Amino acid sequence: MDSKSIPELLKRSLQSHMAEADLREDEETQVIIAKLSVLSEKVAAAKAKALEKRAQRIADEQ
User: Fold this and answer.
1) Is 29:23 a contact under the CB 8 Å cutoff?
2) Cα-Cα-Cα-Cα dihedral sign, residues 53, 54, 59, 60
3) In which domain of life is the source organism classified (predicted)?
């Protein structure tokens, strides 16, 4: 199962609200979405690095 990070969930929620016309897409929401995208990428990179370190530690223990 591929779990989503908090920034990714927030971004999708914001986009959903804009699609339903609860929020309008303006410069401020575009900036927020861009920042959430960057943060989501950083979280994904950190998760990948942690998984790689875990796999390496398990391989070293064997």
Assistant:
1) yes
2) positive
3) Bacteria
pLDDT of residue 2: 60
- Tell me the two tokens of residue 30: 């575009």
Mean pLDDT, the chain, rounded, equals: 91
Sign of CA dihedral 8, 11, 16, 22: positive
Find where tokens 């995208």 sit.
37
Total number of domains in the chain? 1
Do 5 and 40 contact (CB within 8 A), yes or no?
Answer: yes
Secondary structure E strands in the chain? none
> What's this model's pTM, rounded to 2 decimal places?
0.77
